[in-house]
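Hi support team,

I submitted a single chain yesterday and got back a structure, but I'm not sure I'm reading the token output correctly. Could someone confirm the output below corresponds to the sequence I sent? I've pasted both exactly as they appear in my results page.

Thanks,
R.
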Amino acid sequence: MTPQSSTDPCAPLADVVALAALAWVAAAALHEGMGHGLACTAMGGDPTNWSTFHFGCNQEAMSLWGRRIVAGAGTAVNVTLAALGWLVWRGSCSLRGRLAGWIVFALNGLTTFGYLVFSACFGIGDWNGRGVMAGVTDPVLARFALAGVGVAGYYAVVRVAAGMLSRVLNGAGMAAQARRCAVIVWMTTGVISLAAALASGSDWRSTIGASIGVALGGNAGLLSIGRFVKPTAAASATTLSPSWLLRVVAILGTVAFVAILGPGIAL
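Hi R., thanks for writing in. Yes, this is the structure output for that exact sequence:
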């Protein structure tokens, strides 16, 4: 077996999985709880339940704009997290910090714009005709515009994420390193989402499509990042050392996410 490169930051497989798991769990939980949940309360709604990929909100007393704000608040959280990920990547002096920032940026950026395309093409999700786009005068034109913004933004996130990763990786086989990192992150989001869907109990059939679609479908742009990475003089030259604390925290966080928010919490 060929030994892994000493300059490959993805060498500790378990640590990359742990970073991806924490980033994905945080993104999903905050999208629903902090995004839809706080907006629901602020707009005069009545929160009813909170699960991994859904937040129930009684909107009978809300205005049209209130319902739109609640629907779009989850995506606003993803945009904020993507920006924070970029800032962490830019400001961190450690390889682990830069890799964590890249993962947070990539997952939340792809979720943001992938959601726009998802809603525009299939008419479901937060940006559909019952959510952010409720009451628009020309729904067909609105969906085309939404899809256009989503596709352009999604491509931009892939290219920016590739540039960020180019400054983390180094040495020969950079494209292979990038593909390895990206596939690990992509598969981690899919496994966690599948576990959360199965934990939802009797409603797992309706949950599994949405959760896996968001994870493996929405994050599929990760699989093309290896095509766009390029060598750079600013690339890191240190090795990512294993962190057992990170792995334990990731396991506990993922178990809590699946076991508690999987079945959902009545509010």
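A quick pointer for reading it: The two ends are 53 Å apart (CA to CA). Let us know if anything else looks off.

Best,
Support desk
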